[in-house]
Amino acid sequence: MNIIIFPYDYFSITLYAYKCRFLSGDLSLTEHTDSKWTSVVEMQDMDFAEADKPFINII
User: 38 near 46, Cβ under 8 Å?
Assistant: First the structure.
């Protein structure tokens, strides 16, 4: 597990990342409208929230 505390101007956010494996079945999205399997290199050019960007280098 990795933890990042990211400071914005008026608040900070604590994000937790867990290493998981997708074994089978279908993804069920609860917070987003779309999902995509991609490489770490492709992720560098995607539009992420500033607080999410440090996780790209951790993957």
Answer: yes
Which DSSP letter does residue 47 get?
Answer: -
Q: How remote is the C-alpha of 12 from its chain's centroid?
A: 17
If 0-12 CB within 10 Å is exposed, 13-18 middle and 19+ buried, where does residue 53 land?
A: middle
User: Which amino acid is it at 51?
Assistant: A
Is residue 27 scored above 90 in pLDDT?
no
Separation in Å, CA 59 to CA 1, 3, 17, 33: 11, 13, 10, 22
Least trusted range by pLDDT, from 14-18, 42-46, 48-52, 55-59: 55-59
The DSSP annotation for 19-45 comes to -----SS----SS-S------HHHHTT
